[in-house]
Write a structure and sequence with these properties.
365 residues; alpha+beta; Translation, Eukaryotic Peptide Chain Release Factor Subunit 1, Chain A; Nucleotidyltransferase, domain 5; 60s Ribosomal Protein L30, Chain: A; 3 domains; 5-stranded mixed β-sheet; 4-stranded antiparallel β-sheet; globular
Length: 365
């Protein structure tokens, strides 16, 4: 399964489909007494769930589920650094997630959980690695919506740790005679080696900041060029963490725009090879038959549907429709099918896929 899927997400994907499965997705609003406000909104959501459960499910089962929901809410540990919360409860399962992305408030009662926001939170670039390097020192940070946090490594932060080392042959620098330059190269070489473990642990995009000359040297022998999104030139040794975050903002935005363009190119290439389907009905059919390699969908696209003559056939349901249609959101169920069968999912902005009816699937070649 995909590396971006955390063990906790796997729990939700593998959770037994058991009606009623309740998903409560809630954003944190920027108010002064945020924790009190959140608990109030969650209590209101729980009241709404109770009414729907009692109207549509047996009383004993409804009371059991709503009691689990209220217990989860009362035991929540508030995390002000996150932007949203997702609560999943069924008669046989319960789980809470704190998300780094803002979401729309949703209450979903179905036979499976609403997982789109979990996947979107993980797939959207809210986490990244930052390597800050100069001829004297280096630091590696983990960045997310709450800021930058220093990653501790066994590598010395300063080049001076290598000054008294005997010259050794590293990379392509065996013919260098200048001891100072050799020391700097050795320092950079060990920085790149430290990235082996860091990148294998985090699987995140990497931005490298530093003076132009140092970056030029680093580019020549790094083994991690594919993971590096961008080199940002400049002297940032004295920059504060908020200044580094602000500096990276436009570079992250540019990377995301480039990623969307790359996804569209992949769709074009797949269409040329007759390995692309689009539109909810065709995507559902191919996903049900385990043919999906990469699902690309607009982040806010949803589609209520009902089954046709077989499991692989669906028909869209237009409003007004039953409070509990057979498939509340065919997009969310398709995401689950793709991930469960080893495929991948990516999101784009609204109307980026208007020529593909808002959802497209690349099949295995």
């Amino acid at each position: 399964m995909n590396q971006f899927i955390t063990p906790e997400m796997r729990e939700v994907l593998k959770a037994l489909h058991y009606r009623p499965s309740v998903s409560i997705i809630m954003p944190f609003e920027p108010k002064i007494n945020l924790e009190t406000e959140l608990h109030h909104k969650l209590k209101v959501a729980a009241d709404k769930v109770e009414i729907e459960l009692l109207n549509n499910y047996p009383k004993e089962l409804s009371e059991f589920v709503i009691q689990k929901i209220r217990t989860v809410i009362s035991n929540l540990i508030f995390n002000p650094l996150k932007k949203s919360i997702a609560i999943y409860v069924s008669p046989v399962f319960e789980k809470v997630f704190y998300l780094d992305t803002a979401v729309e408030e949703k209450i979903i009662i179905d036979n499976s959980f609403e997982i789109r926001d979990l996947v979107y939170s993980e797939k959207t670039l809210h986490k990244y690695l930052l390597l800050l390097v100069s001829g004297k020192e280096s630091h590696i940070y983990l960045g997310d919506s709450s800021g930058l946090a220093l990653i501790k490594t066994n590598l010395p932060d300063s080049v001076y740790a290598y000054v008294n080392d005997a010259p050794e042959r590293v990379a392509n620098f065996s013919d260098m005679t200048d001891r100072k330059q050799t020391t700097v190269y050795k320092f950079l070489y060990h920085i790149d080696s430290a990235l082996d473990e860091i990148l294998s642990t985090y699987h995140l995009p990497l931005f490298v900041l530093g003076a132009e000359k140092i970056l030029g040297h680093f580019k020549k022998f790094t083994k991690h060029g594919e993971a590096i999104i961008e080199y940002v030139k400049g002297n940032y040794d004295e920059a504060t963490l908020p200044e580094l975050e602000a500096l990276l903002d436009p570079h992250i935005a540019g990377w995301r725009a480039g990623k969307q363009k790359d996804l569209l190119n992949q769709l074009d290439e797949a269409a040329g090879k007759k390995k692309l389907v689009f539109g909810m009905k065709d995507v559902w059919r191919e996903a049900t038959n385990h043919r999906g390699r990469l699902l690309v969908v607009e982040k806010n696209y949803r589609c209520a549907a009902q089954h046709g003559g077989s499991e692989e056939n669906i028909e869209e349901v237009t409003a007004p429709y039953n409070k509990f249609p057979l498939i509340r959101d065919a997009v969310d169920d398709t995401i689950e099918k793709i991930l469960a069968n080893g495929g991948d999912v990516d999101f784009v902005d609204e109307n980026v896929l208007k020529d593909y009816q808002h959802i497209a699937l690349i099949e295995y070649y």
